[in-house]
């Protein structure tokens, strides 16, 4: 099976394959998960990292009163479970498949061997982890201190940076994103009806057009920063 995943600008399988494939063949194990299957639980051993071949995975935890907090959602090509690399012994979060999902599991020993053998790869891994932590910290800060509309605006900025491109004909910003409205509501700590109302408010203000597959930010989108 052909595999191409990237960590920042490092293609992990270009390093594993072909010149190291024989050494790490046994580490290339694909596992299939159905929707709502757990990939790991809180307190599980942190001895693997995971690369998504297809599907979606949410990462989160449960509060003492049983509420679910979603920290991030990952799709095809993404990496998760990376805290094992920096010494996490047991998971402090869960990972759950949001759809039928295929995942390549790589042992921590495999990754550490690669990092010892390739300094460039090692630096990129740490850069990736640092950027991931910054993103999660920023999102949690927004959840704690912003109202629902402000959280949505910040999320749209993030989506625009990650998935957006400018239409040279209209000046609009097109965002082709991997999230359902349910995904967005979970990440923003709100309900789907509330999120739908917020999208409608922004649409009525002439700032965006939303459908299931893409978001179009108008050329007057700088008003979202206010």
From TrEMBL:
Domain HTH crp-type: 146-221
SMART domains listed in its UniProt record: cNMP, HTH_CRP
InterPro entries: cNMP-bd_dom, cNMP-bd_dom_sf, Env_Response_Regulators, HTH_CRP, RmlC-like_jellyroll, WH-like_DNA-bd_sf, WH_DNA-bd_sf
Residue ranges annotated for the Cyclic nucleotide-binding domain, each copy included: 12-115
Pfam families: cNMP_binding, HTH_Crp_2
Keyword hit for Transcription regulation: yes
UniProt keywords, alphabetically: DNA-binding, Transcription, Transcription regulation
Protein name listed in UniProt: Crp/Fnr family transcriptional regulator
Source organism: Joostella atrarenae
